[in-house]
Amino acid sequence: MTDRFAVASHLMPTYARADLAFERGEGAWLIATTGERYLDFGSGVAVNVLGHAHPALVEALTDQAHKVWHVSNLFRIPEAERLADRLCAASFADLVFFCNSGAEAMEGAIKTARKYHAVSGHPERVDIITYEGAFHGRTLATLAAGGQKKYLEGFGPVAGGFIQVPFADLEATKKAVGPTTAAILIEPVQGEGGVRVVPPEFLRQLRQLCDDNGLMLVFDEVQTGIGRTGDLFGYMHSGIAPDIMALAKALGGGFPIGAFVATAEAGKGMTAGTHGSTFGGNPLATRVGNAVLDVVLSPGFLENTRRMSLLLKQRLAELKDRYPSVIAEVRGEGLLLGLVCVVPNTDMVAALRNEKLLTIAAGDNVVRLLPPLIIDDSQVAEAVAMIDRACAKLAQAAKPVTETAV
Ligand code: PLP
């Protein structure tokens, strides 16, 4: 029998947590319960787009909390209508459905793609083509879409209707298209997969392939959306747009909210009763979402993101040259950057945390740098100094014994 008093916490132990807790945040900084200050280059996995306790978000949240938090979707919700209007005005979309998380947004995106074909007279078109290394969430359908064995194991039958092909492989994608294909689903930059940027040319080729075959092009922008790549949405630099897109993470700046958006044509099957959510798009969540957009869409905001990206990339490239035994490559878009490590990425994350810099591991032995988009030159400089110190220690530890033993 398990000694329940030997268990440190009653939280289900599905995470390998660092023994560190935070009691407050200020901009790009998190203050631990010990009083130590950490520079947050993880942003709660690409969520805290405006850092911590941003005054505009605090104001919106507290003001709305005094009015009304939740009403059901059986009534009109003006803040949700306003947020939907603004997301459509700023993107390719005509229709928005609000939910609570990225996986839920992806489920809705998948349903929308399949329903489009069903109401177009092709209910047999159900298969979704996805890419190796993808991550679309932890629900049963999104796990099947991601196709990662380690996450699927032990959870019973794998949901059908997903066909996975190698990353950014056009020929394999073409071969996978058949009479039952409904859609192609892709992240413009694979985040969890290791900050793997999909070449814009490949996205354009997918658009063409979808147009030629009557398929829905679905982008998972849960991690790349709302400014992370330096554009409001990651698809924008490719010059093409999808038919359906999933959003979450930064959309609420830390308040849980997700959304899937579609063109009027792609969303034509999503009529009354086809989908729903109790909490989705409630007044509190959408009020905060609107406050996030107020800041992210304000003049100069995304220019700062792009400038910080350039600066950080340059400085990281210098560190890569200086510490080839630690960093093999720097990659990414905007402020979704990855250090491909030579040492184990978990060692790098731990070494950076010792220097008081928070980062996040990803696939492909990558360490992700996902600072809030509000960072400035001085915070980039502080982060680079911390990475420099961590690399120096790791390089020293990685030195062959013969070199040090002379
Ligand atoms: N899609 C992508 C690209 C993601 O990065 C994630 C989360 O990391 C998800 C979907 C799932 O989002 P959530 O954890 O909010 O369900």
What does this 3D model show about the protein?
The chain has 406 residues and is α/β, with parallel strands linked by helices. The chain has helices at residues 43-46, 55-65, 78-89, 102-119, 140-146, 149-152, 170-176, 200-213, 283-296, 301-322, 345-354, 377-398, 401-404, and strands at residues 22-26, 29-32, 37-40, 95-99, 127-131, 162-165, 181-186, 189-190, 196-197, 216-220, 244-247, 258-262, 327-333, 336-341, 357-358, 360-362, 366-369. α3 runs parallel beside α9 (283-296) and α11 packs across α12. It is globular and about 65 Å long. Pyridoxal-5'-phosphate (PLP) is lined by residues 45, 101-103, 106, 135-137, 187, 191-192, 220, 222-223, 248.
